[in-house]
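User: I've been trying to design a sequence by hand for this structure and keep getting stuck. Would you show me what you'd pick, starting by listing the structure so we're on the same page?

Assistant: Good idea, let's start from the same input. This is the structure you sent:
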């Protein structure tokens, strides 16, 4: 049996458990009892189609758009069922407490939709409220799928570097991260995103990893688009955790099965950077010179606190950095690297540029407050962070991975303005 089938079967078991528990409660609703055949057909067709989407993605290769639809539908339905299940749990708990206290049955009076004064039991009121509440995030996530995946936002950030050489004042750096070409499906939207980046006229461009999901050939359709990226002082890039092929599994496909090794795939990924004219930094550094003044760019391979496959060697990357370098800028894909190794060991690194988190693709961002479920896994997950004289910026990504929706956390192009003094933004 292919290894991933176990994972998919676990997901199906979760689906089935949700289905059974929710079904046992929903069938007690008066509206269900009035049209049991229709309600049962709709419920089980919805559930069976969810299972089918999972297995279709497992056994077949589709266009990225179809694959995204097959991923969006079951996960969205699962989320809705999970919310509804919470309401059912509350209903069961209240019934249990009432039974323990041996109080007489009471009901919550609610006028029905016809206004005829009919009374709805407490239990039915809770479940119908759960149905309503569970539909709200589904509507938002559907909008995130249809309109937000390619709704690129340009964010301007002032980077205050007191030691910045005069020749580099007001230089602009653009950062994009996490393209994940294997997920993308809208060529026209990608073209507009690249055009939007170029319209900012950056002097330097950073790409901070995860060019693909698994395979180098995911970039085939996008090479002519990203090949248009240019910057006077160069484009510099690093690898992300997905670029190494560590998540590649031997999927069974009825057609178009890839025949290549993980090692060859990595060679091909690196070659894409070369074809694009990007300077791929593999645990190494490079000096940028302007008018006999310099800053140093350092690029480290992927290194993360919770990643079982770490290739980054920051000691090696820093080994040839001139101690007299006025400013050192580091590209490191995973932001957990910053607190784990960079802050305690390398005070000479002024700014670290990261990606990886995607901002969770769901949450809320405001200059004064931001929240996403991803923050419970990553202390630094979106935007600018400072610790004494060192800074970290986490870009929330140009593309997306797995779940094809963004809600509140939109794809990002970041423009950094290098300044010697001023207000940090």
């Amino acid at each position: 049996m292919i290894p991933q089938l176990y994972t998919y079967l676990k997901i199906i078991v979760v689906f089935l458990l949700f289905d059974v528990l929710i079904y046992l409660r929903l069938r007690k609703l008066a509206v269900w009892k009035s049209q049991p055949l229709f309600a049962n057909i709709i419920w089980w067709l919805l559930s069976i189609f969810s299972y089918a989407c999972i297995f279709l993605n497992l056994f077949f290769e589709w266009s990225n758009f179809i694959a995204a639809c097959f991923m969006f539908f079951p996960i969205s339905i699962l989320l809705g069922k999970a919310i509804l299940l919470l309401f059912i749990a509350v209903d069961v708990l209240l019934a249990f407490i009432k039974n323990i206290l041996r109080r007489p049955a009471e009901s919550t009076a609610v006028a029905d939709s016809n206004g005829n004064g009919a009374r709805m039991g407490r239990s039915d009121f809770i479940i119908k409220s759960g149905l309503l509440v569970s539909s709200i995030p589904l509507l938002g996530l559907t909008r995130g799928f249809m309109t937000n995946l390619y709704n690129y936002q340009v964010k301007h950030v002032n980077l205050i570097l007191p030691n910045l050489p005069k020749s580099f004042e007001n230089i602009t750096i653009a950062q994009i991260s996490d393209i994940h070409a294997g997920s993308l499906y809208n060529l026209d939207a990608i073209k507009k995103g690249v055009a939007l980046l170029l319209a900012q006229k950056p002097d330097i461009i950073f790409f901070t990893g995860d060019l693909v999901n698994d395979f180098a050939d995911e970039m085939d359709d996008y090479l002519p688009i990203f090949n248009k990226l240019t910057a006077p002082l160069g484009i510099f890039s690093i690898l992300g955790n997905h670029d190494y092929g560590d998540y590649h599994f031997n999927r069974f496909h009825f057609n178009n099965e890839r025949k290549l090794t993980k090692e060859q795939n990595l060679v091909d990924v690196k070659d894409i950077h070369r074809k694009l004219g990007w300077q791929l930094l593999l645990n190494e550094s490079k000096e940028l010179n302007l008018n006999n003044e310099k800053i140093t760019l350092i690029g480290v391979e992927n290194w993360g606190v919770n990643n079982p496959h770490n290739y980054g060697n920051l000691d090696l990357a820093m080994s040839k950095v001139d101690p007299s370098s006025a400013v050192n800028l580091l590209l490191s894909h995973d932001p957990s690297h910053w607190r784990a190794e960079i802050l305690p060991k390398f005070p000479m690194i002024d700014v670290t540029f990261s990606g990886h988190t995607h901002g969770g693709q769901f949450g809320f961002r405001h200059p004064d407050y931001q929240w996403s479920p991803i923050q419970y896994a990553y202390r630094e997950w979106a935007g600018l962070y400072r610790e004494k004289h060192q800074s970290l910026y986490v870009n929330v990504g140009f593309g997306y991975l797995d779940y094809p929706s963004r809600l509140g956390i939109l794809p990002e192009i970041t423009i950094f303005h290098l300044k010697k003094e001023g207000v940090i933004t």
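That's my pick for every position. To get oriented when you compare it with your attempt: The chain is about 40% helix and 15% strand. The two ends are 52 Å apart (CA to CA).
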